[in-house]
């Protein structure tokens, strides 16, 4: 929305973890180097923890990006898998077939495959994101898998990225053996006030900005205080502050704009008067969203464009906190449409996704249970929906997230395949899918 105004080529503060926007300051570059060393030196089980929104997923993506050519990565973006589901996922990745239902036989086949890879000079690493959500029984299986070795080094390197809750889970008596297997325990630090300024500058530079500073020092300080050092919060606040500056035709983000951004985020503590304003604006925004949904379902691209533009104008003029109020509850279908539209527009044509299904508009009641199933498997907030047509009939396409490459998308596809209602998914690029999307044009 504000890219051209600020001279940017891409969104600087999108929440999806993209390697081009990696910030190596605040110890993150050194942490990545330590991870790469631990993995390539065959140190076994590695744990990386941090606060929610501290940047663990970005570090995880960077590890996948920087692994040497001889290392084969198996990535689990959502670890809420049973023991058997984890074994099936490993079998899919290693391209082996089980001929027995016994877990011991399955582990033996996995070990044989890993030994063959080791003999061929290959190294395999299992990288688990959100590992704190892994069932205890599956964590015990992780311990068993970490025991597999060639006599000289581990056959399967395992890296667990998790929230701090994992440390508490590992204190449980039944998981003490797993705790003892951990060779490295690393932590992603939060950003201090000075590092927030460097972080903002790094992201803006990666997005194409080469001019003078956009954020004033007092705006940076305020964002740092509100964000409490969490990069995800910094991204949200910075994006909304730039939108506020853009709406006032200001080429600099000031303290005023940073405070408006704070009001729009859930980190704020608005007064009663502000709460009343937020509620009123939420009603207005919801009405616009429902109208957009209605027109989209009718396949009126021109009408959708007008409704969406009306929504954007309202958003610019008010810089309201309606979104922050809505974000504390499950998004409405209309909100999901608009959020999906923005994510699709911001995505590069080479971005990869998993097409789960296309559901006729007349059967839209099937969307809610489908979305719940996908959320449970890959984590909330990743689903994208878009209007399309199937054999001339209006329908909704459902996508399970955006990924920088096919390997990660295929890993998500494999997870979905284990659910009886989510089979027959396809890995496609956004560039291919855009040709069938009935999205409003700018």
From TrEMBL:
Record-linked InterPro entries: AAA_22, ExeA_AAA_ATPase_DNA-bind, P-loop_NTPase
Pfam families: AAA_22
Annotated ORC1/DEAH AAA+ ATPase domain residues: 41-170
Protein name in the entry: AAA family ATPase
Organism annotation: Deefgea chitinilytica
């Amino acid at each position: 929305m504000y890219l051209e105004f600020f001279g940017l080529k891409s969104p600087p503060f999108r929440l999806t973890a993209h390697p081009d926007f990696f910030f190596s300051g605040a110890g993150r570059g050194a942490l990545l180097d330590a991870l790469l060393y631990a993995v390539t030196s065959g140190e076994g089980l590695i744990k990386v923890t941090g606060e929610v929104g501290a940047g663990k997923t970005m570090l995880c993506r960077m590890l996948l990006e920087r692994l040497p050519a001889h290392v084969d990565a198996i990535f689990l973006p959502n670890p809420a898998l049973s023991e058997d589901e984890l074994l099936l996922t490993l079998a899919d990745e290693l391209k082996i077939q089980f001929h027995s239902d016994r877990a011991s036989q399955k582990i033996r086949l996995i070990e044989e495959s890993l030994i063959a890879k080791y003999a061929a000079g290959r190294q395999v690493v299992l990288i688990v994101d959100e590992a704190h959500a892994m069932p205890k029984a599956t964590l015990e299986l992780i311990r068993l898998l970490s025991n597999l070795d060639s006599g000289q080094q581990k056959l399967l390197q395992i890296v667990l990225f998790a929230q701090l809750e994992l440390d508490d889970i590992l204190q449980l008596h039944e998981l003490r053996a797993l705790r003892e297997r951990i060779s490295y325990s690393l932590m992603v630090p939060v950003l201090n006030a000075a590092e927030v300024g460097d972080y903002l500058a790094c992201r803006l530079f990666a997005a194409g900005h080469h001019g003078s500073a956009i954020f004033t020092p007092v705006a940076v300080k305020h964002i740092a205080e509100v964000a409490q050092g969490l990069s995800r919060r910094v991204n949200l606040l910075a994006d909304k502050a730039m939108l506020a500056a853009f709406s006032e035709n200001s080429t600099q983000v000031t303290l005023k704009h940073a405070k408006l951004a704070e009001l729009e985020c859930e980190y704020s503590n608005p007064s009663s008067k502000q709460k009343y304003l937020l509620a009123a604006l939420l009603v207005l925004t919801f009405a616009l969203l429902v109208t957009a949904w209605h027109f989209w379902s009718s396949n009126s691209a021109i009408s959708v464009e007008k409704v969406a533009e009306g929504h954007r104008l309202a958003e610019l003029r008010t810089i309201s906190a309606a979104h922050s109020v809505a974000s504390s509850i499950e998004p409405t279908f209309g909100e999901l449409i608009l959020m999906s539209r923005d994510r699709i527009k911001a995505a590069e044509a080479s971005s990869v996704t998993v097409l789960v299904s296309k559901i006729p508009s007349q059967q839209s009641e099937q969307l809610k249970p489908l979305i719940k199933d996908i959320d449970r498997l890959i984590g909330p907030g990743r689903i994208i929906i878009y209007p399309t047509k199937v054999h001339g009939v209006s329908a909704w396409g459902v996508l399970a997230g955006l990924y920088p490459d096919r390997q990660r998308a295929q890993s998500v596809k494999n997870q979905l395949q284990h659910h009886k209602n989510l089979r027959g998914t396809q890995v496609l690029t956004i560039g291919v899918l855009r040709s069938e999307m009935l999205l409003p044009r700018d």
